[in-house]
Amino acid sequence: MPMSYKLRILSLGAGVQSTTILLMSHHGELPKLDAAIFSDTGWEREATYLWLDYLRSIVSIPIITVSGGNVREDMREAQVRGLKKDGVRWANMPFYTRDRSTGNLGMLRRQCTREYKIEPIRKELRLMLGLVPRQRAPQGAVEQWVGISVDEAHRVWARSPDRMSTIRYPLIDMTTMTRNDCLRWLERKGYPIPPKSACIGCPFHSNREWSDLNEAEFLDAVDFDEMIRNKGGMKGDIFIHRSCVPLAEVDLRNGDEKLGQQYFDFVKDEKLNLFVRNLDL
């Protein structure tokens, strides 16, 4: 006999795959979700916040925003290695490093996804279940959906992160959809294409993704890159661009590509632009 879950929740990243899952549930092509939870790092792109507002305006499924803090501001006070002092955090973004004496390049461990995405959602799930601090969660109380498509199957977790949640991958388990299949589904339904969902200063950005930031976001990332250059506990310098060159000095443009072009294409979409303009009324 199949398990009866108390909650069916989507971990909403607000990108192509998780958006498609949300809208498929809204249309009845997937089982009805109780809610979708977006964990805000405090440093998301403007286009992502606009997209979340747009989704809230068109779906009946509650979209809950939670937060584990502001990753940009937390990194201002962080040190990378050495003794942890009172009030000082460990740096947990996957920064790139260059040793000052040898020139050797490296990369720090990535911990930000767990701290700013996974853990805030887990805490919200406990609240939704009515659990008090240190109360043991019932096993399998949550069916937690994650937006990973079959072409990204290597990202599938080997097991659920805790006894409370059973992780499901609807695009793999139910529909075997690729990211391109998601794009085609959105197009058939007449929806705009979601913007890339990532922190403004994510070190995993490609050159195209750095170029796709609008001007204010790019300047913010440049300022952040300068701020982290000499973090405590490191023998070398720290960068957010994989070349280990200051972001302000990296040539990101190819041909006629301009900063912010994807963002402006995003708001030019007829349906979404109508929504964005209504926000300003």
Quick structural gist:
The protein has helices at 16-26, 46-58, 71-76, 112-128, 170-173, 179-189, 207-211, 215-227, 261-268, 270-279; strands at 7-11, 35-40, 63-67, 96-99, 105-107, 142-146, 165-168, 236-239.
Placed side by side, the strands forming the largest sheet appear as 3-2-1-6-7
Q: Identify the overall geometry.
A: globular
Structural category is alpha/beta
**Poorly predicted sequence stretches spanning 5 or more consecutive residues:** 255-268, 275-281
Distance between the termini: 52 Å
Helix fraction?
A: 25-40%
Overall residue-averaged pLDDT value: 85
- Alpha carbon gyration radius: 20 Å
What does this protein structure show overall?
The chain is built from 10 helices and 8 strands. It is an alpha/beta fold and 281 residues long. A 5-stranded parallel sheet has the order 3-2-1-6-7, sandwiched between helices. The chain has a 3-stranded antiparallel sheet with strand order 5-4-8, with no helix packed on it. Residues 255-268 and 275-281 have low confidence and may be disordered.
Question: How would the blueprint of this fold be written?
Answer:
Blueprint: E1 7-11, H1 16-26, E2 35-40, H2 46-58, E3 63-67, H3 71-76, E4 96-99, E5 105-107, H4 112-128, E6 142-146, E7 165-168, H5 170-173, H6 179-189, H7 207-211, H8 215-227, E8 236-239, H9 261-268, H10 270-279
Parallel strand pairs: 1-2, 1-6, 2-3, 6-7
Antiparallel strand pairs: 4-5, 4-8
Write out key terms for the chains shown.
disordered C terminus; single chain; 281 residues; five-stranded parallel beta sheet; alpha/beta; 35% helix
